[in-house]
Amino acid sequence: MRARYGGRVHEEADTRVAAILSLRRVDGTCAHLAPGQIGLAAHKSKTGRPETSASCSRERTLRRLVRTIPAYSHAKTQLVINKLNDLIAGFAAVAAGLSWMAWALINSVTHRALETSTPGSNLIRLGITLTVAWNLLLVPAALRIRHWLTPVNKSLAVVLTGAGVLSSCLWAIGALTQITHSLEFVYLSLASAWLLSIAILMSPSHRSLARFTLVVGAFTALDALFNRFEPMPFILYILAAPKLPLNAIWSVAIGLSLLLSGRKNRRLRAA
């Protein structure tokens, strides 16, 4: 898609440049003159009429304009690619949140059959599929959120993004194999570190989402802490119970923000 779009833009740019150059052609002599000599020069074009310093100035302006067209074409192509990436990540994040909601609803209606059914049964497979989906579908959003962070340290942003992606991948791997106590503690710790950090580093334009992310990160950290020191009284686990539904809502909120980001950018450019 990028090649086709970029080629079309360059083709249109070349056509426009050719049209502009065909309107006025100078024999190129003025390009060899020093700036102080332009005012004294008189050149002839193909029409036989004298070309003054003004025509030389217009020629130089046209040449500068021609040189800027490739950069403009590349920037426009990159803008389309960024908007497409935001759309893909946005829809994927919304689907991730909906996958968890579907898992919770089905598991509730079937009295936890997605967790307690016979291994290899259809309900167990459905539960695994939904668990893998709500984790892996969040990965594109994690990669795009990196661009929302304030540019304090690019290496730090990459490390934090890696923690978020690794957390989702480990949870998905655990769903496909077996979620052990140690594995659960690792992916919860990585997720809490990622969420709390990006909440602090999010740009002011995402302030409300940053506050929500901070709340979700706090509950995730609490869940990791309880997991580390379990077994614990059941009443304490209730404190971390909002973590999963909040994660689902957060995924949908992130997805909607990504889907709307292109429209916000257009409004800012127009202003």
Please describe the structure with a list of short key phrases separated by commas or semicolons.
disordered C terminus, 2 strands, disordered N terminus, mainly alpha, 75% helix
Short description:
The protein has 10 helices and 2 strands; from the N terminus they run αββααααααααα.
Distance between the termini: 30 Å
Give the number of DSSP strands: 2
What best-fitting shape do the alpha-carbon axes yield? Answer: elongated
Q: Output the structural class.
A: mainly alpha
The low-pLDDT segments are 1-10, 23-51, 266-271
**Sheet with the most strands, sense and barrel status:** 2 strands, antiparallel
What is the string of SSEs from the N terminus onward? HEEHHHHHHHHH
Residue share in helices? over 70%
Please give the radius of gyration in angstroms: 29 Å
- The overall number of domains is 2
Topology:
Blueprint: H1 2-23, E1 43-44, E2 50-51, H2 53-109, H3 113-116, H4 122-136, H5 139-145, H6 154-176, H7 181-201, H8 207-228, H9 234-237, H10 243-270
Antiparallel strand pairs: 1-2
Helix pairs in contact: 1-2, 2-4, 2-5, 2-10, 4-6, 5-6, 6-7, 7-8, 8-10
Explain this structure.
The chain has ten helices and two strands, in the order αββααααααααα. The chain is an all-alpha fold. Strands 1-2 form a two-stranded antiparallel sheet.
